[in-house]
Structure formats: structure tokens, C-alpha cells
Amino acid sequence: RGFRSPKRSKISERKNMKNWRRAFGPNEVIQRVRPDHTDDYLNNPHKGTATFQRFNGDPLYPDTRWNDSEGPTTFSKSAKRDLSNDHYPPTRVSYCRWLWSVLEPEPGKIRWDILEGALANAARRSQTLQIRSQPFIGNDTPMWYWDTGAKWDRKVFKGRGIKVPDHNDPLYLKYWGRHIQTIGERLDGHPALESVDVAYGGSCGECGGNTNRSNAQSLVNVYLWAFRKTQLLSMLGTAGCRYASTIKRDLGWRADCFGDMRTDGQGVVPEGLCWNHMDEAYPREVEEDGVKDAWRSAPVVLESCWTVPHWQQQGWDLDHILAQGCKYHLSVFMPKSVYIPEEWNDRIMEFNKRIGYRFHLQQMILPLEAKPGERIEVQTTIDNRGIAPIYRPYQFALKFSQDRSHHVVRLKEDIRQWMPDFTFFREKLNFPALKQGVVRISCAIVDESNLPVVKLAIKELSREGWHPLTWMDVV
What is the mean pLDDT of the chain? Predict the structure, then answer.
């Protein structure tokens, strides 16, 4: 068989191209590709550790305290050169939440400068943004809401002296519903919007407040109508979460207080046998809310209880906490932008590496040669060494490069089905129209514009984000 050398290129590349076929016998017709893997952290999108009320390159909170109510409201449009986070993992996800009274200070007037400014800032910092609007935290429900004659929760007022909305009041469904619907009409499907919390009631929007079952369903439906494209996350342990698990839509879930291993019964119960989130709340709520297998089609997000240095100060078992988190197949961990103790950094980074997806190309089988336009079969084995799939409809693609000519072929395989461990698939595709000679084969996970967006755990990586794999002869 004749072999025609391509035009002159880099010397090392040309040498490899000339010699690539010598390792095969004369009767071989296929090649097996098993690329060298990397153990590096890949910092891929839609997974890993999230910043809180901050973005890549911003200073962390100065100590172990954080602020649930004060999300960012002003943003610099100048590009940040250094997007690293000292004493905190690299990240592609930011998480921000704001009070209702901040986002809608006057009835029907949304602070788009805040929401759209945060989304634009996240994109500038190479992040996507998870958001939550919070009905209240203390006495901070919008004043204009009370002017409508809305009712408040008498039990909370009597017990804590705080005036909070009665979530079963029709006026709450009307005005909170309008708030969420308005935001959804403008932001649903925004490319920088990672997800929206279904935080329909209670302090911080986390526990559902006094919402009865019927009204919880109505409030969840508002989110479903408002956000038809953007990923929604239910709040674990709420009636709304239980309802959302029964509908035909892929909702993920989110839980606060991950890591809570408190043992002090304060003289009420024996030491070490008090209620906590890790031993009692999470296992029960995941089962009762019907979300045990939700991770297969939608993301799980866990927010730290207090902060990671607080875990260390309390003497809690970090390895036990992280191992239990993996059982829930989380994709995003949010430890509140408070520093990670240096002694625990390596273990947190290993956890960060494991959560979400991590794709190894175990093997690919290709022909040694093909004619332009010929149908060829590609067999691929992917090893997802993460604990969850990816949830975005990106596509696995091959790039055929010859001189300055590049042909990208996107495979039909649904990468959202690449569950942990092995996935095998085979596809037939049309070999591109190339001239006789040698063609370089690379792979990547690409967006609809054929731009690489996700790195595989392959050592070799081009500047453009493609993983060089092998060559083929064009005959």
C-alpha cells in the first residue's frame, strides 16, 4: 500500500506520522487506542467546589464566618488576570443568594443589575452561576409585601418575635410567585445560569416554612413554569422536594449542613447519641423524599454545615464525612468560601476530583485506513471514575486534521448516560473528504459550536483543548 507524506509540519509530529504504521503487521485492519491517563485535577465545568457570594479570584471570607443574606450587588467589568483562590480549591461554579427584599425592593421591579451583573461576572471568571432568591431570613421580608395586607406566621412571631410570611396565604403565592415567574421569564436558559434553587419558603428558603402540602405543590409549580430550560434543585427535607420527585421532570436536590456530626446532647441525651444531619437527617430524608436515584439524571449539591475549619475544630472525622457525601453522588460541594485548613487540603482536593464526572478514555478501536466518504465504525469504552454523570447535552467528537484542514464529527452517543464505571458504545460515521496521506485523530467533548468544553483525563492535550489520539491512512 502506498504512503504519501503530508506537507511539512513540526519535525516531531512529522516523524511520528511517518512511523506510526510500522508497529502493525501487514494483515492488521484495526487499531486499539489506549491513551496515557493523567491524575491531575481537571477543573471541568458544572462540578467541583463552588465559591459562595464570590467569584474566582475574589478574597475569601476573612475568618470562619460567612453571610447568607448579603449576595454581591456590584461588579467590576474589568477582567481578572488571576482567577486562583488561595486556600480554596479551583472551581468553575459560583453560588450566590439574595433576599427577596434586595432583588425586588419595589413591587414588580426586579434588580436586573444584580442578577445579570452576577451572571456576566461569573462568565468573566470562567464560572457558571447557581442562584437562590430567599423569602426572608429574619425581619427582612419586603415592606411593600406587608402593605398588601398579607398575613404573617403567628407561631413564628409568638415564639421568636419575627414577622415572617404565612406561606399558605394566597397573597404569598401571588407575589412570591410573580417574583419567581418574572425572573424566569428573563433568565431561563441563560448560558451562564447553572441552576436555580426551588427555595419557596422558610428562613433562607431552606425548610419550606409553614407551607402545607397543597401550597407547597403550587409553589413548586411556579418554578417549573418559570424555568423550563434551566436546571432546578429541590430543597431536601421539604414537602416541595417530595412532590417534585413524583413529577416527570429531572430535578436535582440540594441540602444544607453537610458534615454535621454534632455529638453534644447538652445533658438531654447521652453523649454521642443526639440528632445530627449526617447520622439521621440525610439518610432518612433522601429515602422519604424519593430522591435516592435522582442523581442519575440531575445534580446533587451539598453545602457545608458551618465551615470546613469548624469541622476540624470540632474534631469531626473528615474521611467519614467525605465518604458519606460520595454515597449521595454529589456533583457540587459548597463550603461557603471559607479557607480550607492546610492539613486537610489534599483530602479535600481528592474529594473535589472525585465528585461529579471524570472521564477516562479506556479504549477506542478504529480502522487503520479509510477512503473519503466511507462508512467506518468506531468502538469506544469510557471509564467514568467520578461518582455522577454529566448533565449537559454536550457531545463526544472526533477531529480529523490534515495540514490546515480540520473536520469535526460529533458522535450521536448521549454522554449524559456515562454513569460511574464503564460505558461501551459503537457508532458508524462518514469518513471525511480528505486527500490521500495521513490524518491526525483527536477527541474532545464539545458544545454546539464544536468547541471543546470538557477535558478528559488524558495526558496529551492541545492548546485548543483537543486530545490527540492516533493517525489513520487516507487511501
Answer: 94
